[in-house]
Amino acid sequence: MIKNRQGWLWVGVGLTFLGSLYLLQGILMPFLTGLLVAYAMNPAVKRLEKLGFSRTLGTIVMVFSFFLVIGLLLFIAIPFIQAELLRLATRVPQYGQRIMIALKPLLDDAYLYIQPRDIERLRELASNYLADVITWGIKLIAGILTSGLALANLLSLIVITPVVTFYLLRDWGKIIATLDGWLPRPYEPTLKRLFIEMNTTIGGFARGQSLVCLSVGLYYCITLTLINLDFSFVVGSVIGVIAFIPYVGALVGFMLSIGIALAQFSDWYSIGIVAGIFVIGQTLEAYLLIPYFVGDRIGLHPVWVLFALLAGGVLYGFIGILFALPIAAALGVLVKYFLGLYLKSPYYLGSISSTKHKSRETAHSSS
């Protein structure tokens, strides 16, 4: 009875915690971001402590350096990206016409299999609506980058997140010791082992995937610039930012690049070079970067990553996306642990039924 009460108590605490996160999601962004940054920078502060820095001084150095770099990147990159997006929006109608001209031989061949009136209708719909939709979408993104809400969120991140990061990072050891003291004593060794495994999984995946995103983004920026593709920096940056979503970053970048190449180049050779760049990029990412930086030891399957990102986005928006992968990694560790217990349990091995059968035989023979 006591164990049942304890179980229901933990269920109630968990549901209360999740409900609080859902109700307060509008103000959680700077605090959760600060938690992630503090978690990521804690190993660097530990190294500074080994070099003779105090915990407070090491925290100040890391927080100041990190947010200085991020601030410079934001204030330099956002105006540039906004200008590039607006320039792309003004060229979309022209690009649409060029793409239709480039695809005209293929459309002429399609007359052999599709009714001419259907092709003309598709061409009319594409010319009337596609360019308008793409132009509106690009202008919307450019507007979001400089809207009042985006600026408010950016200011909250810039003002509140460094403060939260500083205090969490400075008191990280005390926080961990306090949480350790709250663990149930009979289960402390098991819980500590699980937390260590979660930390290894989350840290390894975050560090490895960050290096993969950086490498992929630089690769596409450089290679697409070398062939003089328009908006190569924007395309490469977009691929690098969303490369942590399996296959989605490369697919979006490929569609953008091929669309721009069809509008910019008049020969199929140049378009083929763009396609070849993506084939080489995907091969390098799948067979070199991910095995080297991430590796199979992390244990996060691409399908599980996709599901976690979609579920996090649906439930909690951007905050859910931000924490989807760490939570997915932690849940993966827990699932493996409980699966291991199940595979060793009598429910899986069948010893419960055999024991009951033997006890019944013994009782029958004794009677």
Description:
There is one protein chain. This protein has 14 helices and no strands. It is mainly α and 367 residues long. It has helices at 2-23, 29-50, 55-102, 104-110, 116-145, 148-170, 172-182, 188-226, 232-241, 248-264, 268-294, 302-344, 346-349, 351-366. The protein has a domain at 28-182. The protein starts with a helix and ends with a helix. Helix 8 packs antiparallel against helix 12 (302-344).
The tally of strands reads: 0
Number of helices: 14
Low-confidence stretches: none
Structural class determined from secondary elements: mainly alpha
> How big a fraction of the residues is strand?
under 5%
Main beta sheet strand tally, sense and closure: none
Shape: globular
- How large, in whole angstroms, is the Cα Rg? 27 Å
Helical percent range? over 70%
Task: Please trace the helix and strand order, writing H or E for each element.
Answer: HHHHHHHHHHHHHH
User: Please, what is the average pLDDT?
Assistant: 77
Termini separation comes to: 33 Å
